[in-house]
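pasting for ref
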Amino acid sequence: MHNGEKHIDGKTETQLEFENVFVLETEIGLDPNGTHKAVNWYEGTGYYACNGVVQEITFKKASEQDRLLLFDKDGKELSINPGKTYFGINETGKSSVE
């Protein structure tokens, strides 16, 4: 679901399905020029949903060239199940999990 509605593929007209869903929360603002979004990709919190279970996570990224690291609530690197994966980015404190 997306904003309370089924999230539909524009070509196939079927509901999108993913094995892994991530919602990353971080600071989002405007660049100094005021025309583009500035997203803090370097650290934040979020949620990982898979197989009907949702868990709180944190993430870190040392630089633009480095890979995104995902951690469980105990600080251990997250093990991600194989399959299609969706990443959503949201402002800190603006997500809800049902």
